[in-house]
Amino acid sequence: QVPDALISQAQEFQRAMMMYTCAIREVKTKLEVLNDELSIKNQRNPIEMIKSRVKKPLSIVEKLQRRNLPVTLESMMNNLDDVAGIRVICSFVDDIYAVANMLVSQDDITVIAIKDYIKNPKSNGYRSYHLIIEIPVFFSEEKKNLRVEVQIRTIAMDFWASLDHQLKYKKDIGAAADEISEDLRQCAEVIAATDQHMLQIRKSIEEKSARQSK
Ligand code: 0O2
To answer: Pfam families from the xrefs (predicted)?
Structure first.
């Protein structure tokens, strides 16, 4: 027979995960509203895609252990900022900043942290704009402020990060590791340059069509 304490812990965990899922839904709706409005205003979508996930129990335990933190529900809720995660894939680099600013200026959102890995890429070449925000979610008997990690990046940055993520799980590559890391970093540079180029092309088209319509 399963002990009552275990059942009660499992139920509490399930409730916490439900809360994070609801927080994701709230933030996702905000992003969809912005995308709908901007697509009419600018005649193009700044957001290509929105992906989301709640962190898997095993990843939660591993992260708490890695940080030498207690593996409890309370510790998870107090210490982990990425239990609820949203990834926003934008068309162009300037869309990232536009969407981020519009999101954080909403008065029910509190910004906890910002990491701009676009202005300051990681040494391996990783680029993305990370926001940790807190949002109130109203449940039947309480209002809960919940943290959500929002990663905003272009299609090109997402392409690189997805492949980088896959490659990291490959077998030990021993002595070739440095060379491969350098190759990956160079790919990230090429991708970043292409992103800038695509932005210039869009701006030049916008200028030309604005002149034509005068
Ligand atoms: P997953 O499976 O995507 O959730 P930490 O969260 O402790 O690892 P920190 O400094 O709190 O580190 O967070 P950081 O670096 O701002 O963001 C961590 C998340 O960003 C990662 O989550 C990845 O999603 C993404 N990320 C950061 N660096 C890289 C990178 O070099 N390559 C790729 N592909 N993604 C990266 P998780 O939990 O590690 O993974």
So the answer is: RelA_SpoT (PF04607)
